[in-house]
Amino acid sequence: MDAEVVIAGAGPNGLMLASELLLAGVRPIVLEKLPERSTVPRANGLVGQVVRMLDRRGLYERLSGTAGAPRPAPAFVFGAMPLRLDVLEDNPVYLLPVPQVRIEEVLEERALELGAEIRRGHELLGFTQDSDGVTVTLSGPDGEYQLRTGYLVGADGGHSRTRKLAGIEFPGVTNDSMVSRTGSAAVPPEYVEDGLLKIPGYGVVPPFAHQRTERGMFVWAPFPDRLPAISTGEWDAPADAEMTFAELQESTDRVLGVHLPLVEPAGDGVRQLRRVVGGNSRLASRFRSGRVLLVGDAAHVHSAIGGPGLNLGLQDAVNLGWKLAAEVRGWASPGLLDTYESERRPVGERVVMRTQAQSALIAPGNDVTAFRKLFAEFLEDPGNVRRVAELISGADIRYGAGAHPLVGRWAPDLMVGDVRLAEVMRSGRPLLVDLTPSARFAGTPVPEHVQVVAGRGDRPIALLVRPDGYVAWAAEDEATERIGDAGRGGDAGRGGDAWHGGDAWSGGDAGQSGDAGQSGDAGQSGNGGVAGLREALGRWFQARPLTSATR
Q1: What is the DSSP secondary-structure string of 281-299?
Q2: Mean pLDDT calculated for residue range 303-319
């Protein structure tokens, strides 16, 4: 083999996957057809669980420039409707306003630090696969050549050649009725007061918030670290000629219904002026074909409204990374790699749904206006605000169900001794956290790649956390778990079967999804207890002997 894994695409998702594999001891080759990183402005930041996920890899501080844990956002928007998030006791929406160009830079630095091999100017031409691996045909600066690899992962975007060559269908819809225009543009300083844009004859516009009118959509983006921008969305016929600054001005005035003078900004930086007609909402019929897998936009595309793209794609990469590494290294139980699709495809489906819903909410028309008024009443209830906030952030994801309410959910950022759980997870290893006074669970024999930490805390008293940050097993009360162990005997508490292997992950109902990220019955677990923990640990690492735990 020339490489254990070949990744086609060195965007954020491909680079994140490379780092996850390297943390687990798997060395990939990353291919990118562009000779250097793109400087074209794209996404303006990150929204949702991905911010906390990056914190668990030590990347949040690099990107934000601030130390400590991420803080939730006090407000956000859904379909150009304001969301008061400060009314929520446990706000799940986190923001990281960093441009994608910088995100890619940091992710590449991280991958190179871990030993990644990134080949720029190398393009995937084709591949063949058999039961032992994949032969990849490439075009590089010196001509065509081939690589032999165990697995090929397509992180090559919405027009993914990997997906097309694998014969994976990409069903969905194309909506060509909306024309989006974006350009580097500033407004006269007298129009800005206390950080708000005040437009005579229209009203007050907060920064970065979608403004819906009966004529279209408007966004004012006064970026602090790069050139400001203006974006509009209209339901009109686009011009055929190359977009001009005058076209952006005319579109702005039409959408707002009044004249807002735009000026070309001073200063250095990449200037943008682009027009996009329509958009796609599509989801791959499969995320895997034999030894070929898809992540990010190669697996799903959708409207950019609400900023879900990188949140979805980077979490694809982290979900796939540890499972693919387990498969390559021989740690995986039968069916483990298949759970990448059964867990992540329902999440992608849900993101496509909610972006379509938001697009419908910003459309023109009296019927939409009436629905928005009704939806505004719906958002007066904090419980409904929480539901929408969890949908936006991905906090509603649950990979299967279990007797303990935390099983399948994002692990809480507990204090483990003097440090946060997020800091302990920087290695990307599975983690057994024991907070009992007697360190009862920390003495359980564990596979060699499971990290064991002991501390002090309240409930839950113990957690088994997957490398992607989701709970595989949990115990609530030490006395109860002791009684449970005695009563259940050797078959006690099949907590964590879904993560560590067993029949539940070999197929069955794994692909049937209910709520976001729920994979049918695939993740059902019983109670906790040492016996349940032992069984869960052993089921995932069937090919490895258990060793005594060390703190």
Answers
A1: EEE-S-SEETTEEE-GGGT
A2: 92
396 by DSSP, 3-state: which? coil
Residue 538 has pLDDT above 70, yes or no: no
Domain spans in the chain, listed from the N-terminal domain onward: 1-42+100-170+284-362, 46-98+363-397, 173-280, 415-540
CB 36 within 8 A of CB 300: no
- Token pair, residue 537, equals 């640990």
**What is the CATH topology of the domain spanning 415-540?**
Glutaredoxin (3.40.30)
Which residues lie below 8 Å from residue 370, measured CB to CB, with a gap of 6+?
none
Tell the CATH superfamily of the 1-42+100-170+284-362 domain: FAD/NAD(P)-binding domain (3.50.50.60)
Token pair, residue 340, equals 């990448």
Residue 219: its pLDDT value, please? 95
CATH topology of domain 173-280: Alpha-Beta Plaits (3.30.70)
Under a CB-based contact definition with an 8 Å cutoff, are residues 404 and 103 in contact?
Answer: no
Q: Based on the number of CB atoms within 10 Å of its own CB, is 194 exposed (0-12), middle (13-18) or buried (19 or more)?
A: exposed
In this structure, what DSSP letter does residue 551 have? -
Q: How would you label 350-373 residue by residue, b for 16+ Cβ within 10 Å and e otherwise?
A: bbbebbbbbbebbbbeeebeeeee
Model pLDDT, residue 371: 96
Instruction: Render pLDDT for 159-218 as a digit per residue (tens, 0 to 9).
Output: 999 999 999 999 999 888 889 999 999 999 999 999 999 999 999 999 988 899 999 999
Nearest alpha carbon to residue 437 among 459, 410, 456, 411: 456
313: helix, strand or coil: helix
* Distance from C-alpha of 388 to C-alpha of 391, rounded to nearest angstrom: 5
Distance, in Å, from the CA atom of 501 to the CA atom of 163, rounded to the nearest integer, reads 28
Which of 340, 549, 348 shows the shortest CA–CA distance to 454? 549
CA 319/CA 410 separation, integer angstroms? 12
SS3 content of the chain, % helix, strand, coil (to 5): 30, 25, 45
Rounded to whole angstroms, the Cα distance separating 414 from 381 reads: 29
Cα gap 188→87, rounded to integer Å: 34
What is the chain's Cα-based Rg? 24
Specify the pairing of strand 3-8 against strand 143-154. Answer: parallel
Alpha helices in 192-288 (DSSP H): 245-256
Task: For tokens 């929408």, name the residue.
Answer: 388
